[in-house]
Amino acid sequence: MSEQNQTETKAKAGAIIVPVTPFEQNCTIIWDEATKQAAVFDPGGDVPRILAAIEKTGVKVEKIWLTHGHIDHVGGAAELRDALRVPIEGPHRDDKFLLDNVVTSGATFGMTGVRNFAPDRWLEEGERVEIGSLSFDILHCPGHSPGSVVYFNKDLRFAHVGDVLFNGSVGRTDLPGGNHQTLISSIKTKLLPLGDDVGFICGHGAGSSFGQERRTNPFITGQM
């Protein structure tokens, strides 16, 4: 990302990452700098920590956005929705079976206090979500889970990719509904064509750019 683009990004939007649960999942708060209207991506748990970060940042959260239905990304979603009285948007309907079984999945990992839930809005390929003046296009990117979606802001050259793509790796595909070939196809046909300059936040670990991953990620270059 060029220095000019970074300056423009900082002027238009802000974001902080709140690592939550033993999974160290990147719960992300992103906001419109002008209005301080915000959305929370993937509140996987530790809701008091998320609420404290919201208060410290001084933003007004108006939406919860989910990239997919795995427990480490949605464990705190129902609790946060109740606390903030805001709608949940996403993921794609193909992850309904995961949201219907949050309690069962949580029990497997010793996570208590979680609840099954449905979002207020399922997201489809080609739809758009907005917070303040920030607009994100939705790309349905199955493979890690059947209903994984990526949120792409064209103006900021920024994406939140959930667990579809990582810095140096890709999402695991050995969970129910996962498929490695489908995942690689999602990355190569939907994400990489958006441009090498697009930076991204992912569900775990450090972010990267599509260009960096296209050149060096062994799962994309074919070395893995």
* Second-tier CATH architecture: 4-Layer Sandwich
Number of E strands = 13
Judging from the principal axes of the Cα atoms, what is the shape? globular
The string of secondary-structure elements, in order, is: HEEEHEHHEHHEEEEEEHEEHH
What is the element layout, followed by pairings?
Blueprint: H1 3-12, E1 13-20, E2 25-32, E3 37-41, H2 47-57, E4 60-65, H3 71-74, H4 77-84, E5 88-89, H5 96-99, H6 102-108, E6 128-131, E7 134-140, E8 149-153, E9 158-160, E10 165-166, E11 169-170, H7 180-191, E12 199-201, E13 208-209, H8 210-216, H9 218-221
Parallel strand pairs: 3-4, 4-5, 9-12
Antiparallel strand pairs: 1-2, 2-3, 6-7, 7-8, 8-9, 10-11, 12-13
